[in-house]
């Protein structure tokens, strides 16, 4: 519980210090934060009190918690930190002028739609553009099979709670996996089963046993640039997943959130391997574009269309027309393809540099995973004799922010001693300095006296 509280504290603090929550702005309520992080109200209360002690926030009776005035916060904002924790793009990498032009154009083109409730499935014109994008990834849906969501998180939340055509009820997830999916499953009170995924991949015998015997409604997987491991499945793995899904009537929810960042043009999604009948293909636009647009898209099998239309309509009536319009104009104008290529090149340079620096500076006994064709995330597995929370705190005190891997696991699942790092907000100089500090702290860290557990094998 202490580890989880510390992780939540780091995330909210980083949002404030990095300016994602502005001075004077009200923070989400204690209840909303509790739901966001899947924790108790007392944990959030404790986090908010600690942030008050750090003079980052203050409370107003019966009104909530607010970020302190800019004059007080300015020294903190000016403190240079190495941010290996964030998963949102650096504002300096986003062409905000282009987005502003697209927003103004969207106001003109979609003015009528703003005053109505449009199709909850998404604007047809945008879905047709999404079809073109998906086809470049060897995914070939019709526009009728494409749904637009208010971010991937909404899609995961809806899919977690709705019935599937196979009539099954249990959900299988990789361990570790995206914490947002775990939060959605927790709030939906679904029966969830975990299966270990290591840098070597997945235990195929265990996976087939789950598919055959455990009434699996769907298997949630991040096949490309896994969060938090950073690794990817091979082409053979993806084909095998598609075949097993069809053989056992289990659906796959394929979260391909970083497809635009893959430098390997031959790396196709699971959906491309004859998996159209049993794969729901999800794409996020938050890592390439503005996360605040809250736009994601999915290609679903025909059997899902009627029931998903109903559940999407009941969730929000319709996704923001302006956000959809901005994305459509950005794609039609060619800006999206150009910007995605730039982001792919930028992040690929950073992840390659991370690999080189890690091989040079990290202790030999520290095993880690590094994506080979791009991506954002990188994981370090600490020896079990090093206390994870203490390591996170030691790094924070030296100006390096990292995330504990615990939030990526089900509460009951065995948790290896993982740290997750992201390169999305670090340049090459910061990567070099950050890994050097991590290496120093790994060597200096006091030992807990526990017997070491086996490391992941690369």
Distinctive features:
458 residues; alpha/beta; Arc Repressor Mutant, subunit A; Aspartate Aminotransferase, domain 2; 16 helices; globular; disordered C terminus
Tell me what the structure shows.
The chain is of the alpha/beta class and 458 residues long. The chain is 43% helix and 15% strand. The strands form 4 sheets. Strands 4-11-10-9-8-5-6-7 form an 8-stranded mixed sheet, with helices on both faces. Strands 12-13-16-15 form a 4-stranded antiparallel sheet. Strands 1-2 form a two-stranded antiparallel sheet. Helix 9 (179-187) links the parallel strand 5 and strand 6 (192-198). The model is unreliable at 449-458 (pLDDT under 50).
Strand content: 5-15%
The CATH homologous superfamily of one domain is termed: Type I PLP-dependent aspartate aminotransferase-like (Major domain)
The CATH topology annotation of one domain reads as Aspartate Aminotransferase, domain 2
Strand order of the largest sheet: 4-11-10-9-8-5-6-7
Point out poorly predicted stretches: 449-458
Give me the Rg, rounded: 22 Å
Q: Please give the CATH architecture of one domain.
A: 3-Layer(aba) Sandwich
- Mean pLDDT across the residues is 88
Largest sheet features: 8 strands, mixed
- Ends distance: 30 Å
CATH uppermost class of one domain: Alpha Beta
Q: Count of helices?
A: 16
Give the overall shape. Answer: globular
Number of strands: 16
Helix content: 40-55%
Structural class: alpha/beta
